[in-house]
């Protein structure tokens, strides 16, 4: 198979060394291989936080850029076998850090499942994508773990079952490209539950090509929502728009007008707000929104995925979606709207990207209406200033 699918993870000459490393790890640890990667990473992160308390609330990528990490990793972990340190050293010859190696291990495991796939199903090169909206299909699929149909992605030449395809996309975009290593701890979530899928139908291919995915978390799963997880409810988050947030929810009959909600912290406000929402089944959480491809393809797919996703959520009778966004192009577009389609609830600088991460709400009906009336050209006009500004500043835009 052509190596262009693997270029983002391995240099050509390193691929064999990486595979040899992963095979040895899997032989030694078997089903506990991910636990091994997790344990080593946790130990290194604990060392860093102990040596530099200012990094305690930063994301994993920021911690792994600390000089403390590169000093500590020269020495074996206390009370652990020397072989573990040998694995670390070999991994650092191939990857930037241990978390990247963990990500690559999971990608290798997924692709290994398809090594014996009939050659006629494999792609030798990346499929050619268009920017014609009519070429794309979308759906929200429940319980994707039971979905056996095959799809192509832009991250492998193999045709994969949907759970593997979505997990691979999450690993390749969020984790490998954008360095949200936190996702590695719950990567199996990507292969279960309800997911939005946007795919292009290519005339000479046997299966659709997925260009965007998102996970739809229902209200019954709120205890496990990313929105309310400890990492996103620390004291570092600054509360925004409390009064307007309550007003809009009251107007939707989701909140009683006489409710008093504590705003002493963002965590207390967000939790109390959720507990007081009268019709929680009208709410969902959207997480792991990904787009794949080159820069031009990603911008188009980001536009179209939001447009199609809002239409799907409206059809499913959702009124509000809880979202966590670091994507500047999305925030810039929402700021261009005047119909109350999106409100920020809190923000924090959890990484060194230069961009704040925002927690907020999509108000489905007005956002769906705005996007349905928006052409791709108009969408680009609404966001291009932001793109040029960050290019000028030398900042890297996040697309997933």
From TrEMBL:
Reading the lineage from the top rank, the first entry is Bacteria
- Give the matching InterPro entries: AHL_synthase
The family database entries (Pfam families) matched by this protein are listed as: AHL_synthase
What is catalysed by this protein?
A: a fatty acyl-[ACP] + S-adenosyl-L-methionine = an N-acyl-L-homoserine lactone + S-methyl-5'-thioadenosine + holo-[ACP] + H(+)
Q: Which GO terms describe its molecular function?
A: N-acyl homoserine lactone synthase activity
Q: Among its keywords, does the record have S-adenosyl-L-methionine?
A: yes
Please indicate if the UniProt record lists Protein biosynthesis as a keyword.
no
E.C. numbers: 2.3.1.184
- Membership in a protein family: Belongs to the LuxM / VanM family.
Q: This chain belongs to which protein, by name? A: acyl-homoserine-lactone synthase
Provenance organism: Vibrio europaeus
